Amino acid sequence: MFDLSGKTALVTGSGRGIGLVLARGLARAGARVALNDLDGDRIAPAREELRREGHETGAAAFDVTDSAAVREGLDRLEREFAPLDILINNAGIHRRAPLAEMPVEDWRLVIDTNLTSAFLVGQRAARGMIARGGGKIINICSLNCELPRPGIGNYSAAKGGLVLLTRSMTVEWARHNIQVNGIAPGYILTEMTRPLSEDPERNAWIVGRTPAGRWGRPEDLIGAAVFLASEASAFVNGQMIFVDGGMRVAL
Ligand code: NAP
User: Fold this and answer.
1) What are phi and psi for residue 88, nearest 5 degrees?
2) d(Cα 126, Cα 220) in Å, to the nearest integer?
């Protein structure tokens, strides 16, 4: 049920961090995976890492916020690598500032990268999936889609929007045998969260506030991703799986 042999996947923002680990997880489950990042320089070492483990990957460097680049990138990938069965919309960024002082450029960049990107890549991928009779789309949200923190109002708004985009895609595309779901990670150790893990006070707050008593690792997200990418989730639609060590359910 969890075997992805014969399936082709694209993971956006997979030059490093959670995206690269999820790409490796899908590859180990049998999928052929294409990596995406802003530029090829980041993708090359990631591909080499996976190649050493015996996984041949595809590559598609493009900016997920640029609609023309998304269209060209997916056209080329589907022509030269393979049509997509699985899409993980993972690319995301932070620009932290209190809302009262946040420059509108930082607001727009975070909304574009974390929300509009999933619409652009999801729309292009879904057109092919509809024509071929099905597919899987997994949107990487965040615990902050429900629970905001000061300083990340742009990010919380984007991830909250991504929850409703996941449900909107579901109500339009489920009939085409496309299952659209999301994963909402808690605090996971990556470059993105380095400023938090290196701040002793924030680090202690995160570990103390997480019932599991630790930071998450990118590998903690693989199980949910393989489940949502596989036949095991054939009748799971519009859901958000929180992988957060229990933080969302604790006061
Ligand atoms: P990360 O280490 O900063 O990696 C993000 C990746 O996205 C990078 O490879 C980055 O490329 C790429 N990217 C950024 N903008 C892009 C664009 N316009 N086009 C294409 N690629 C782009 O972050 P992460 O921690 O792995 O986060 C991955 C996802 O998980 C994000 O959506 C994030 O919001 C979500 N998430 C993370 C956590 C956490 O605790 N880490 C928690 C909840 C949710 P460059 O390397 O070129 O910048």
Assistant:
1) -110, 115
2) 27
Domain containing residue 99: CATH number: 3.40.50.720
What positions carry a catalytic annotation? 155
Which of 12, 20, 35, 38 should be mutated for ligand 1, with most atoms under 8 A from CB?
A: 38
Cα separation, 108 vs 124, in Å, equals 22
Q: How many domains does the chain have?
A: 1
> Atom 4 in ligand 1: which residue has the minimum CA distance?
17
Residue 178's closest CA among 54, 92, 85, 60? 85
pTM tops 0.90, yes or no = yes
Decide: 19 in ligand 1 pocket, CB within 6 A: yes
pLDDT in tens, 99-147: 999 999 999 999 999 999 999 999 999 999 999 999 999 999 999 999 9
Asked if residues 70 and 13 have their Cβ atoms less than 8 Å apart, the reply is: no
62 falls within a domain: yes
DSSP string of 110-158? Answer: HHIIIIIHHHHHHHHHHHHHHHHT-EEEEEE--GGGTS--TT-HHHHHH
CA distance 3 to 90: 21
Unique residue bearing structure tokens 């996941």: 166
Return d(Cα 21, Cα 226) in angstroms, integer: 12
Tell me the C-alpha distance between 144 and 163, whole Å: 11
Q: Identify the domain containing residue 76 by its residue range.
A: 8-243
